[in-house]
Design goal:
Layout (H helix, E strand, L loop, with lengths): L3 E6 L13 E6 L20
Antiparallel strand pairs: 1-2
Length: 48
């Protein structure tokens, strides 16, 4: 099993036409894990 994966990202905000705007690199593969997320929702009235 491979522990690394290929990814594409950027380090600087460059125009997309630039040769160095997007970089390919390897990074550790993320692992799935259980997470609990509690949210509190309240309606907010708005007038258009």
């Amino acid at each position: 099993m491979t522990t690394m994966m290929k990814a594409i990202g950027f380090k600087e905000h460059l125009p997309i036409e630039s040769k160095n705007s997007l970089l390919e690199f390897e990074t550790p593969k993320p692992t799935a894990r259980a997470m609990i997320c509690w949210l509190k929702w309240q309606p907010y009235p708005s007038t258009p």
